[in-house]
């Protein structure tokens, strides 16, 4: 495991300006409980700039919760998350754990994009409006800028003629491709992919994964991926982390994890998913 | 049918009284429209506050909702009519004197506050029925709270809250009949009370009153159903209003129109 000891006692200085060496995402002693149910406990890991990390493991192992914590969709129960070296939800000040300002959280959050399992496109807007809404009103881009970018993104995801369509008239695969374009329109440093193909028909899964492969190949965006598509995980990611019971059981290069897992739990899990 | 023997004469009376009845009807319509608009504004404001994450907005909203929902309309009218003006009586310098001096406006306020408090619950509840994924997507796009409410959540909640608001508006219309107790305001019910004297209560209230209030409620219902259809169409569910209202199915039109005249068709469309 990375940085097992330094995290526990000493704090990385929040004031440290982000340099090339600063991890884009850093979890320090992260804990997440839902009531009495401890989902994540003493979780420490780092993701470097441009790194693509896939989280695998059985349902309920806390993978999705990690993504949701980074997106601030869940409250952190304990510990710290740093984005580019800056605290996302809480920081240590005078020996106490205090919440960061809303302003800082917002500033950091605009660097993070997320694609959901259920797409979550806005049904009251056209495809184009879905993509341009946040760039115009959150990032302050001009309409012309945002629309131009949206069209090129729609081109990229293979839906150049669907700009004026309504989300409800699109198939699941098409909706998910729009959702990817919407997330990319914000120029995120970090892209969170939460089981993006789980709700899709099997025959369109490949299309969506190919688009994401292309994004991975052509950009330097840091990706945190939760998926059951092991082939995709193997192709795209630099690192695979195997979770069970809220802890990292094993992590390593995808080649090593998939062909020669060292941990018994990983072997069992991969055996089940890959059907060996 | 002995019962109806006098009715031909009653219709003659009705004809003679028609001006006064129409005046009363107009007052009732104004009370319902202004009261309904005020109630809607209050409902949206309090509903959004009650559904906001900030305790500083939520707590006062809850208090206001419970107070104005709990006070009966007659009692509220009484307070506005007889207690509130005392403030101006003892402090002649206070602004907005015109409002308390207009009994009609006080009636509008009473209706707006009372039904607005009910409506606030409908607004708040419909906000919570917008799927969680929609809220999460707005967070993932870093939208501010006012921005996400205005552009994403409210337009979806709108379609869900319309049936409840329709109910409340019809209630408000009927509640406006309480205005006959307001001095200097003669609404439709007040005029019906007058009409009763030369006729009888069966003719004035049970017949004329029933028909007119029913028709007014029907107008509200149809109008709100049109709004609901439009709201649903905007969310990609159901046909557009134009499709609902068009007498003939669309597909028939090209066949019946003479071939090779697309230009004529487009100008005709422009004129409309």
Automatic annotation (TrEMBL), chain A:
Check the record and name the Pfam families matching this protein: ABC_tran
> Where does the UniProt annotation locate this protein?
Cell membrane
Is Glycosyltransferase among the key words of this record?
no
UniProt GO MF annotations: ABC-type amino acid transporter activity; ATP binding; ATP hydrolysis activity
Q: Which UniProt keywords apply?
A: Amino-acid transport, ATP-binding, Cell membrane, Membrane, Nucleotide-binding, Transport
Report the main location listed first in the record: membrane
Q: Which InterPro entries match?
A: AAA+_ATPase, ABC_ATPase_HisP-typ, ABC_transporter-like_ATP-bd, ABC_transporter-like_CS, Ectoine_EhuA, MetN_ABC_transporter-like, P-loop_NTPase
Where is it found, in Gene Ontology cellular component terms?
Answer: plasma membrane
Regarding the membrane, this protein is recorded as:
Peripheral membrane protein
Keyword ATP-binding in the entry? The reply is yes
Q: Which family does it belong to?
A: Belongs to the ABC transporter superfamily.
NCBIfam families (UniProt xref): ectoine_ehuA
**What is the protein's name according to its record?**
Ectoine/hydroxyectoine ABC transporter ATP-binding protein EhuA
Question: What species is given as this protein's source?
Answer: Nesterenkonia alkaliphila
Gene it is expressed from: ehuA
UniProtKB/TrEMBL annotation, chain B:
- Which molecular-function annotations from GO does this UniProt entry contain? transmembrane transporter activity
Keyword Transport part of the UniProt annotation? yes
Which cellular compartments is it found in? Cell membrane
Q: Which PROSITE patterns match?
A: ABC_TM1 (PS50928)
> Topology with regard to the membrane?
Multi-pass membrane protein
What residue ranges are annotated as transmembrane?
25-49, 70-90, 96-117, 157-182, 202-227
| CDD domains (UniProt xref) | TM_PBP2
Q: Where is this region: Disordered?
A: 249-272
Example GO BP: amino acid transport
Q: Which InterPro entries match?
A: AA_ABC_transptr_permease_3TM, ArtM/GltK/GlnP/TcyL/YhdX-like, MetI-like, MetI-like_sf
Q: Which part of the chain is the ABC transmembrane type-1 domain? A: 25-224
Q: What is its main location?
A: membrane
Which keywords does this Swiss-Prot/TrEMBL entry list? Answer: Amino-acid transport, Cell membrane, Membrane, Transmembrane, Transmembrane helix, Transport
Q: Does the keyword Amino-acid biosynthesis apply?
A: no
* Compositionally biased tracts (Polar residues): 258-272
Q: Which Pfam families has this protein been placed in? A: BPD_transp_1
PANTHER family, alphabetically?
L-CYSTINE TRANSPORT SYSTEM PERMEASE PROTEIN TCYL (PTHR30614:SF0), MEMBRANE COMPONENT OF AMINO ACID ABC TRANSPORTER (PTHR30614)
Protein family membership: Belongs to the binding-protein-dependent transport system permease family.
The name this protein goes by in its record: ABC transporter permease subunit
Provenance organism: Nesterenkonia alkaliphila
């Amino acid at each position: 495991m990375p940085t097992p000891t330094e995290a526990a006692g000493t704090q990385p200085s929040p004031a440290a300006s982000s340099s090339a060496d600063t991890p884009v995402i850093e979890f320090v002693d992260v804990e997440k409980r839902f009531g009495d149910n401890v989902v994540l406990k003493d979780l420490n890991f780092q993701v470097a700039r441009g790194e693509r990390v896939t989280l695998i493991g059985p349902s309920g192992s806390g993978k999705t919760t990690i993504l949701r914590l980074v997106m601030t969709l869940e409250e952190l129960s304990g510990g710290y998350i740093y984005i580019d070296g800056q605290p996302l939800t809480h920081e240590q000040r005078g020996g106490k754990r205090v919440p960061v300002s809303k302003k800082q959280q917002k500033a950091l959050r605009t660097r993070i994009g997320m694609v959901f399992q259920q797409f979550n496109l806005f049904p009251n807007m056209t495809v184009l409006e879905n993509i341009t809404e946040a760039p115009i009103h959150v990032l302050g881009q001009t309409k012309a800028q945002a629309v131009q970018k949206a069209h090129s993104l729609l081109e990229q995801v293979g839906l150049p003629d669907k700009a004026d369509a309504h989300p409800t008239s699109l198939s699941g695969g098409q909706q998910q491709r729009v959702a990817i374009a919407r997330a990319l329109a914000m120029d995120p440093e970090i892209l969170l992919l939460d089981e993006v193909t789980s709700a899709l028909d099997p025959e369109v899964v490949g299309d969506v994964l190919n688009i994401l492969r292309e994004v991975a190949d052509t950009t330097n965006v840091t990706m945190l991926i939760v998926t059951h598509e092991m082939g995709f995980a193997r192709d795209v990611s630099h690192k695979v982390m195997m979770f069970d019971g809220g802890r990292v059981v094993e992590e390593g290069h995808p080649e090593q994890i998939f062909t020669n897992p060292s941990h018994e739990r990983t072997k069992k899990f991969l055996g089940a998913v890959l059907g060996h | 049918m002995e019962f109806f023997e006098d009715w031909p004469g009653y219709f003659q009376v009705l004809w003679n009284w028609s001006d006064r009845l129409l005046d009363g009807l107009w007052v009732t319509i104004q009370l319902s429209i202004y009261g309904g608009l005020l109630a809607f504004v209050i409902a949206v404001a309090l509903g959004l506050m009650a559904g906001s994450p900030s305790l500083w907005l939520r707590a006062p909203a809850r208090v206001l909702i419970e107070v104005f929902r709990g006070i009966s309309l007659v009692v509220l009218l009484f307070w506005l009519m007889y207690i509130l003006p005392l403030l101006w009586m003892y402090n002649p310098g206070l602004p907005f004197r015109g409002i308390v001096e207009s009994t009609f406006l006080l009636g509008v306020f009473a209706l707006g506050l009372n039904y607005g408090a009910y409506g606030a619950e409908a607004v708040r509840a419909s906000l919570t029925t917008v799927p969680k994924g929609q809220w999460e997507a707005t967070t993932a796009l870093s939208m501010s709270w006012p921005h996400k409410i205005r552009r994403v959540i409210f337009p979806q909640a709108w379609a869900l809250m319309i049936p409840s608001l329709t109910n409340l508006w019809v209630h408000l219309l009927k509640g406006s009949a309480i205005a006959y107790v307001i001095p200097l305001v003669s609404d439709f019910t007040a005029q019906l009370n007058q009409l009763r004297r030369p006729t009888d209560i069966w003719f004035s209230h049970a017949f004329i009153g029933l028909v007119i209030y029913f028709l007014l409620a029907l107008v509200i219902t149809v109008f709100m159903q049109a709004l609901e259809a439009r709201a649903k169409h905007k969310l990609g569910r159901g046909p557009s209003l134009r499709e609902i209202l068009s007498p003939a199915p669309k597909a028939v039109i090209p066949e019946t129109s003479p071939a090779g005249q697309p230009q004529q068709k487009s100008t005709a469309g422009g004129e409309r």
